[in-house]
TrEMBL record:
<comment type="similarity">
    <text>Belongs to the ABC transporter superfamily.</text>
</comment>
<dbReference type="Pfam" id="PF08402">
    <property type="entry name" value="TOBE_2"/>
</dbReference>
<feature type="domain" description="ABC transporter">
    <location>
        <begin position="4"/>
        <end position="244"/>
    </location>
</feature>
<keyword id="KW-0410">Iron transport</keyword>
<keyword id="KW-1003">Cell membrane</keyword>
<dbReference type="InterPro" id="IPR017871">
    <property type="entry name" value="ABC_transporter-like_CS"/>
</dbReference>
<keyword id="KW-0813">Transport</keyword>
<dbReference type="GO" id="GO:0015408">
    <property type="term" value="F:ABC-type ferric iron transporter activity"/>
</dbReference>
<dbReference type="InterPro" id="IPR013611">
    <property type="entry name" value="Transp-assoc_OB_typ2"/>
</dbReference>
<dbReference type="InterPro" id="IPR027417">
    <property type="entry name" value="P-loop_NTPase"/>
</dbReference>
<dbReference type="GO" id="GO:0016887">
    <property type="term" value="F:ATP hydrolysis activity"/>
</dbReference>
<keyword id="KW-0547">Nucleotide-binding</keyword>
<keyword id="KW-0472">Membrane</keyword>
<dbReference type="GO" id="GO:0005524">
    <property type="term" value="F:ATP binding"/>
</dbReference>
<keyword id="KW-0406">Ion transport</keyword>
<keyword id="KW-0408">Iron</keyword>
<keyword id="KW-0067">ATP-binding</keyword>
């Protein structure tokens, strides 16, 4: 299977309204892992859908190119039309034909390719079985739930045996419970299809749960691409640090030679403005430090922090704490704390962004 490569991809719609100016997508370069599952994550308007539409062939880049193996799919001069790319796209709206049955909807792309008879029946049956809709083959989409409709859209995608599957917020219209169930379906779909998948979402938990790689975009630019565990542990910069996972970003003066992975003695010294093994903390340049809630623990030997809020979340409570200098932190605890109490906490680690 060939690799998809985005090469300095740029799209400028030429819009110059108030607050606008830069290109929708700016100089995005990315080599997708073969048969990988890439989640494209970022706030609304950061250019995710525009990247997806350029990959699909619906938009032409203003600059840069898209390659699939040896084949150039798009650049500022030429665009291979969508129907000539072996790609399938799944939309938020499912885009099913209301007058066709589930089986007819799923088999439609095969009909377009003039596949009929036994070959048609067996491929449709296989795709329906994968999304667990065999019993619904003769229903119309109007007689299905939202999750079932999305599974029809997935089966229609699978039946085409595409090289690349593009998914634009496919779970956005489903409730939380169904989204979780559908994540399983997507995983099975990915394993079964051996296609490279690109999944646009602004839900970081969904991205982390599904993807082999997460790409974070902001204001048209690609900020970081890494496997979920890496991007969680070592985010680059404030935007990625605040988008991925829960956590607090605090500003601390750190010695010049402090690394990026910070331990409690160094953090404690920086918070108290004391000398640490790395030099004099509390006097170096100000740095952004990401502290995850699971790194903050109540400990009698810790630093006193004020509990600003304690929210019961079932398996634990989520706390908001105020550091002695007023900055806030998040923590998890099995024990509830009263608002306003001072409790000693230790911060087992932090990551300098
Ligand atoms: N056809 C178009 N003409 C002009 N501007 C456009 C067009 N399509 C998108 N844009 C602009 O490009 C920018 C990126 O839009 P895009 O839809 O790619 O963002 P997104 O990250 O997918 O957002 P969302 O999560 O809200 O769907 C936005 O500022 C948008 O207004």
């Amino acid at each position: 299977m060939a690799q998809l490569i985005l090469n300095h991809l740029t799209k400028d719609f030429g819009a110059k309204g108030p607050g606008e100016g830069g290109p929708a997508v700016s100089d995005v370069s990315l080599t997708l892992r073969k048969q990988g599952f890439l989640a494209l994550l970022g706030p609304s308007g950061c250019g995710k859908t525009t990247v997806l539409r350029m990959i699909a062939g619906f938009e032409q880049p203003t600059d840069g190119s898209i390659e699939f193996g040896e084949c150039r799919l798009s650049d500022a001069v030429r665009v291979l039309p969508p129907e000539k790319r072996n790609m399938a796209m799944v939309f938020q709206s499912y885009a099913l034909w209301p007058h066709m049955t589930v089986a007819e909807n799923v088999g439609y792309p095969l009909k377009v390719r003039r596949i009929s008879g036994e070959a048609w029946r067996s491929r449709v049956a296989e795709a329906l079985s994968l999304v667990r809709l065999t019993a619904y083959a003769d229903r119309r989409p109007s007689a299905l739930s939202g999750g079932q409709r999305q599974r029809v859209a997935l089966a229609r995608c699978l039946v085409q045996q595409p090289d690349i599957v593009l998914l634009d917020e496919p779970l956005a219209n489903l409730d939380q419970h169904l989204r979780k169930a559908m994540e399983e379906t997507f995983r099975a779909f990915h394993e079964r299809s051996s296609a490279t998948m690109i999944y646009v979402t602004h839900d970081q938990a969904e991205a982390m749960a599904l993807a082999t790689d997460v790409a974070v975009m902001s204001e048209g630019k690609l900020l970081q691409v890494a496997p979920p565990a890496d991007i969680y542990a070592r985010p680059e910069g404030r935007v990625v640090g605040s988008l991925i996972g829960r956590g607090a970003i605090v500003r601390l003066r750190l010695p010049e030679k402090a690394g990026r992975q910070l331990d409690w003695p160094l953090l404690q010294a920086a918070l108290a403005g004391r000398r640490s093994g790395h030099g004099h903390a509390g006097e170096g340049p100000l740095s952004d430090v990401l502290i995850r809630p699971e790194q903050v623990h109540p400990d009698s030997g810790g630093m006193p922090m004020r509990v600003l809020s304690s929210v019961f979340e079932g398996e634990r409570s989520a706390l908001t704490l105020a550091l002695p200098d007023g900055q806030s932190l998040k923590a998890y605890s099995n024990k509830a704390f009263c608002h306003g109490t001072e409790v000693p906490f230790v911060i087992s680690g932090g990551w300098r962004l």
